[in-house]
Every structure is written in C-alpha cells, then in structure tokens.
Write a structure and sequence with these properties.
alpha/beta, two-stranded antiparallel sheet, globular, five-stranded mixed β-sheet
C-alpha cells in the first residue's frame, strides 16, 4: 500500500478533511502538499507546541520555510502519513515569497551575520561597566541617576541580543548560542529566555490575532480594538480576558497612561517569567533557566544596595526601568496601530497577514543600533531567521514584492509611529467610555458596591 501511494500519489485528502486534525491530540499539517502527523512531535518542538497548534489542519509551508533552515526538511519524512493534499496549489504571492526566500538562501544571507553581535556586546560592556563604576566611585546623586539610565540602555541592548539569538544562531555553535541567550536574558535582564521564546513564537505565527497573539493581550491596562469589550478568550493564556468595570475604567484613559505604564512594563516580564518557570508547563532546561534568573536577582539588588540611601536606590531603579520602557514602547509601535483580526492564523494568507499586521519605523542607518532590527518589522516578520544586519539591504525587494501584489508596506517616522499608536489607544478609550456598551458583570466589583 505504501509503495502504491508513493508511486501513484493518488492517496490524497481534501483540505476540509485535513482541517479536522487540528487538536493537540490529533495534529496534522501540510508542507509542500504532503501531509504530516506531528501529534507526538509537538511536545518536543523547539519552538513550543503553540505554533504547530495554531497552524494545525492547514498547509503550513510558508511558515515552515520562514522559520526553518533547509536542513530541517530532512527530518520531515519521519512524520509523513502517506497522504497528499488534494488539489494542492501555490498562490502567486506565496510563490514569489518562496523565490525571494530561496534567493536569500542561495546568497548565504542567513549564514552571514556580520559584526552586529560583537559591537552590541561591546556596547553592553561599556554601558554596564560605566553604570557600576558610577555607583561605586561617585557620591553624586545626579551621577547615580544617570547610572540608572545607563543600566536601562544596557538592558535594551541585552534585549536585542536575546531577541536575535532566539530567532537564529548568533554565535558559532548552538552551545554558545544558548549561553548568549541565558546570559543576555536570564542573568543580565532577569527575563526567562524560555518564556520569551514561548511568547514570541506565538506572536510571530499569529501576528495581530486578538485571541492568539499575546502581544496584543494587555487587559486590563490596554486594548487596541473594541472587540476586546466582548471578553475574548485568549488561546495563548487559555483563559478569558474579562473586560469588566475595572478594565473599562483603565482602558478609558489608556492613551494617557500608556507611557507611564511602559516605564514599569518590565515588572510584568519578571512576573511572567516566574509564572512560567514555576508552572506545570513543560519548560526545557527549567533548572538552567531558574539559576540564570537567580544570578540576576543577586547582582542587581546587590548593586542597588551600594547606593548611600533608600531615596537614591529607588530613583536608580525607577531610572533603569523607565529608560528600558523605551524598548517596550518600540514593541508596541510595530503592531498596535496595524490591522487586527479574530481567530487563528490562516495559511492561505500568511504573507498577507504578516505585512498588514506590521509597521516599519524609518530611521537613518546610524540609528539602527537603537531600534535593534525592529525598524524593519515587515522584513523581520517575513524572514525571522535573517540576521538584522541584512534587513536594510532587502527592504527594497520586500517593498517591490508588496507593491506587485497590492499589499501595504507600512512605514512611518518614529514620531509618527507614536502618534498612530496613541490614536489607536484613544479611539478604543473613547469607545470604552460609552456606557451604553454592556460589559460582563464583575462579582467582586458588585460586592464592593452592594449596600444593606
């Protein structure tokens, strides 16, 4: 039977039949028209099970090619079911995207990483040493505040290294790459690289899906669409995002609170890291991750303790958090004002969803260090494995491809991106203030306001 299937290629199933295999206990996907059963592999998938689950029951070719090197295709035969996708066809936009991907691969762009990592680490060393030196060797309160700001810039650059190392191998070997991840994320920034990969992979696959993309799920503080008023169920957090009275109040003023909250957004990343590491979820290298976090929670409080008084210690922490808030703002600028949708990502318009859900930030080449590659968000989402040193050079090709297929290539200045983000938040805030919109009852809120 297997030999007959391979020879005649008549053993096929329809897309409708494939779509039925879309559960974690029954997970099939199609790549290049072949059907693969990845049910048992999902729990071992380096990118987590969510990317596979989000594309379950679909043709996942474009996403697979975007996230995996050619060598990964050699392992697919282990999961082949013997079935082929009936009437398999490649859209024109997907065909052109794959040609561009092949072109970049043939040029060796995915393997050539330049000196970005070296210069970033050098900058990190300067920022860290300057901050520590100022704390130990100066008695000036103003210098101590500046040292807190330098620590914030240090964390920003550390974040870019963590981001890059999660997408591709920034070091010479996988072991050194893992070391760079733990060092830049857990040890130096206090953020679990395991949590980041779990979160970030889900974001990339389901870019700007209100119920699948965790980077848009910030209730009760922020919403980017009135669709959140219906208390959407998050497929990432596996719980209902309740839009209650408290959320309505906070959201009603979100365009005013956006920047202040971003100054302390790092606290949420700390909390999310601990929640994951001490949860029942399977976390690869859990002990290693926890030890890395422990390193951060030793050196950073110890450094702060060397400041002369509690007033300066608090100001130092606030300064470091507030400056790092710039990076949290950058993350929001790329997506908050872009097109959103409800539901899982669809393989049939994967390229389109990546382009309409992202926003580039125009800047001069000498400012690339500041944005860490996020200024070319469209390119990064289409080619996530591409080292950021190449993003500027491929930008004209991506722009031309979008123009050919009538797709948006959104790019604005940093100032304009902030304006668009605030306008999006303001629009949702004004809608939230409309008391005629019913909201789910909050039992705690009602209990507080019950009399007699």
């Amino acid at each position: 039977m297997a030999g007959e299937v391979k020879s005649t290629r008549k053993c096929s199933i329809s897309l409708e039949e494939l779509s039925k295999h879309n559960k974690i206990e029954d997970l099939w996907i199609s790549i290049h028209g072949k059907i693969y059963n990845v049910t048992n592999w999902a729990k071992h998938h380096p990118g987590g099970d969510l990317p596979l689950l989000n594309l379950a029951g679909q043709d996942a070719t474009d996403a697979f090619l975007a996230y995996h090197p050619l060598a990964a295709s050699q392992h697919l035969h282990k999961f082949f079911t013997g079935y082929y996708l009936q009437d398999y066809a490649v859209s024109q936009v997907s065909g052109d995207y794959r040609k561009l991907l092949s072109h970049f691969t043939a040029m060796g762009m995915f393997d050539t990483k330049g000196h970005t990592v070296f210069f970033t680490m050098l900058l990190m060393a300067v920022l860290f040493c300057s901050s520590v030196y100022g704390v130990f060797c100066s008695s000036s309160p103003l210098v101590h505040v500046c040292c807190g700001g330098l620590m914030g810039f240090f964390w920003i650059q550390s974040g870019w290294i963590g981001h890059d190392s999660g997408h591709y191998q920034v070091m010479t070997t996988q072991r050194f790459n893992r070391f760079a991840q733990i060092l830049s994320g857990n040890c130096l920034a206090g953020i679990s690289i395991g949590w980041w990969k779990w979160n970030h992979n889900a974001h990339h696959i389901a870019c700007n899906s209100l119920d699948h993309d965790p980077d848009l799920q910030h209730i009760p503080f922020f919403v980017v669409s009135s669709k959140f008023f219906n208390s959407i169920t998050s497929c990432f957090y596996d719980r209902k995002l309740n839009f209650d009275c408290v959320a309505r109040f906070l959201v009603s003023y979100q365009h005013f609170t956006f920047y202040p909250v971003m100054c302390f957004a790092r606290l949420n990343l700390f909390a999310q890291s601990f929640f994951l590491l001490f949860s029942n979820r399977k976390v690869p290298n859990r002990v290693q991750e926890i030890l890395g976090m422990l390193v951060f929670w030793i050196w950073y409080p110890l450094l702060v303790s060397f400041l002369p008084n509690w007033g300066e210690r608090i100001v130092f922490v606030i300064a470091s958090f507030a400056v790092t808030g710039i990076q949290h703002v950058q993350f929001c600028l790329n997506h908050f004002s872009s097109s959103v949708y409800v539901g899982p990502p669809r393989s049939s318009d994967w390229f389109e969803k990546q382009t309409i859900g992202t926003l580039n930030v125009d800047c001069s080449p000498w400012m690339d260090w500041f944005h860490g590659g996020l200024q070319f968000q469209v390119e990064h989402h289409l080619f996530p494995r591409l080292p950021r040193c190449h993003l500027r050079s491929i930008s004209p090709l991506v722009k031309e491809l979008c123009k050919k297929h009538g797709l948006p290539y959104n790019h604005v200045s940093f100032w304009k991106a902030n304006v668009l983000t605030l306008n999006t938040l303001k629009d949702a805030a004004l809608q939230a203030r409309n008391l005629s919109n019913p909201i789910p009852k909050n039992l705690v809120w009602e209990a507080v306001n019950t009399h007699g």
